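User: I'm putting together notes for a lab meeting next week and I want to include a structural view of one of the chains we've been expressing. I don't have a solved structure, so I'd like a prediction I can at least talk through. The sequence is below, exactly as it appears in our construct file.
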Amino acid sequence: MSDEQKEKILFKRSLLHKVVNVFIGFFAIFLFLLIAFFGFSQTKTFREFLRNQIISQVTPLLNGNLYIREIDGSIFSSVILHNTILYSENDTLINANEIIIKTSPVHLLLKRILVREISIKNTTINLLQDKDGNWNISKIFKPDDEPEDTSKSTFPFTIQVNSLNFKNLAFTRQTFPNVNSNKFYDHINTDDLRLNEIFLDAKIFANINSSLVRLYLNNFSVNPNFNTFDLNKFSGEFELNENFAQVRNLKFKTDSSDVSLNAKIDKLNILGNVELQEFNDYPLEVELNANPFNFDDLSTFIQATDFIRGNVDIKMKAKGFFGDFDISKLSMSYQNTNLNLKGNIKNLHTPENLFLDVEINNSTVVESEVYYLIKGLEIPKYDDLVLTNANLKFNGEPTKFNAELTGNVNEGEINLKTFFNLQKARMEYDIDFTTENVDLFPIFGITSSINSWVKIKGKGTNPNNMNANFSANLNSSTFNNISFDSLNLVSEINSKIFNLNLNSLVNSAKTSVNGILNLTNSESPSYDLFGTIQNFNLQTFTNEKNDSSNLNLSFTAKGNNLELDNLIGNFNIKLEPSFLRDINLEETNINIALTKEEQERNINLVSDFVDFNINGNFSLEKAVDLLIYEAETITSLISQKIEELNPIENKKSTPENLIKIDPIIYESVEFNYDFKFKDFKLVALFLKNDELDISGS
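Assistant: Thanks for the context. Below is the predicted structure for the 697-residue chain, given as structure tokens.
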């Protein structure tokens, strides 16, 4: 090989070595500068430079100011901001004692945004409104003049936050009238909302392109300005992806509630476009335990439930599809009251087509406990009323359904079958109700044993267009020592016309009433009644031996108007041969005629023992009240005088003998009247003094 060729080969090798050396030198310089920059970034000088740069870059974007007292850490791995304040001249929006952000930039090479920690400590956030209705947050940030970007794009990174911590945060939202308010409320008030002592401990993973979000909530607690609600612990595992939405090990604890929940909906992609109607075939599984759940916690946020009070234990297991959901167990207990429910719910995805097929079995309802549970409804309270062995079946839609109820009311039994259709313009209904040996003492305080059957079937509830049939039977029953051998009431209602038929045998007294009520003329309804009473013994009702009687009478009533002041008509009572208190009574007739022309009222009574006529411009209702008071007063005075004339027994007047003055005597009632007494025997009988006799006019 020649010397010239050797020289060329040596030259080529020298060039390659130079290129390599250049790259090595460049990398060494870059590495040196990087290390130098990294080292410089740890210095106080660089952190102060970075603090000033952040403030100078952010402040022009605001209608306010940003203040950061100090920055610690490294921009490559961690940044700690001390005393960060976002404020305007009038108020402070954010005041954060410490903000910590720790990252791992190397994971960006793996298309992952890894945040090792985000921690915010001792921070206050104030959203306040001024007198013009403007919020400080809208004033402090300048409006963005750039047009909204509506183009679709992908986000190639996954997001992972290993630790998200809020420690002692305070959030305030107050409208202008409530600024600086310290009030506490029974219900949430978004115009004056203060959330204090907010603590959060969570982990987050998200892959937006894959529609995957996982939240591991270790704890969330808050102390709001509510009178009856403090959230001590809220935790659980939440996952959303293309295939399902799931909640596991959810715990909800307040001062008065302890709730746990597991739930899952398959085939559901909440992060996508979801329509409720598409939920039909989505598998759904729920397991709920509350021991207890206090309804005050619910009414704090939903004021409409404020009428429900107290702690209820709840257990629920259900599984199926959103459109066909089976409840295998739902039990609710409150003191001695318990409900056990199971059944099927269809069409949860279309509420307008919701269909229920549920049963309540072997349950107990203590009415006095229900009174306290729903005290806000102010229902009556019956201390001794208890429904046991209660079984309820409900089949149908909320507005069109069949329902059956059986159970024991104390020692008696009830049975109820119903059908309601509220979807019609005129509600349709069919009710069948029976009782056996039911004692109404817990309700009325009167011993009884009721054996009954009631049936109502019809359309509509407005008398103007109502068509219905009503029938009731009472057999072998007692009420306050009154024996109902039989009672049958039948009524037919047909477009403003009511037909009535009543037959009864009560304490051996036979009663029959037939009649019609016509509401065709709503301003002047008419009525026509006829009835008879036979073998009526007053003693069986008063339990006084001296009231032994056998009264037989018939009556008719025909007239117009149901309001007493507008009442007109003819009323006849025919007392057939009877006896009262060992005195035989002959046939007696009483005829009453009520007439009214314009404002002139006339009352005319004709009978075998007294005739009277009253006329004038007066209120019949007030006149009746006055006459009753006067009659009671006269009767009392006469009785007292008779007692004073009794030489054997002369009672001294006591406060009980004094007559109470009724306010009716101060009413202005003016009328003309005349009385003609014929035979005071009947009056004397009712005064229980057969020595009294008056005649004259």
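A couple of points you could mention at the meeting. Residues 6-13, 649-656 have pLDDT under 50 and may be disordered. The longest helix spans residues 3-41.

User: Perfect, that's what I needed.
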